[in-house]
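Please, structure for the following, as tokens.
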Amino acid sequence: MIEEIAKNTGLTEEQAAELLSLNKRILELLGEDPNREGLLKTPERVAKSLRFLTKGYREDPAAVLRAATFREDYQQMVIVRDIDFFSLCEHHMLPFFGKAHVGYIPNKYITGLSKIPRVVDIFARRLQVQERLTTQIKDCIQETLNPLGVIVVIEARHMCMQMRGIEKQNSITTTSDFTGAFADKTTRDEFLNLIENRHS
């Protein structure tokens, strides 16, 4: 079993064994019996799940953008909106999820449209706070493509606020960050109007 888990998660056999042992101990500390039928494979499932949910640590978002960069004489806004994402809050390791909206204005180079959602996913698949996630996406696109400007808006629901703590089930957190041309209010408003009118 350890060998299979190591193979499926990218861990060494020693790391896989330790992770399983820790997961089993957590169940015990919660007052559960890890040897009962329903929990026998839970330590293994949790190990695989955590490795998947944090796979962004093992991926390079800049390399993803560079792999599909094309020279193009286009200097108007490019927007990829309603990008679904799931992440884990680094404070409680509970999920937060929502939509990211990303816009940039090319400066001689564009990237494949599917690469922007991939960048979002890579940063989201790490222990995160929404504010940092927003900035990391923006910085990666700016530093890799060197566009005239980048803007990122994220809207998310946080289980650490909805399931525990303040327990406000309908709260949505919005964050934004931008560079370059989007410092101009007119340009920024154009982007915001386009994403706000997406359901009209």
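The radius of gyration is 20 Å. The first strand starts at residue 69 and ends at 71.
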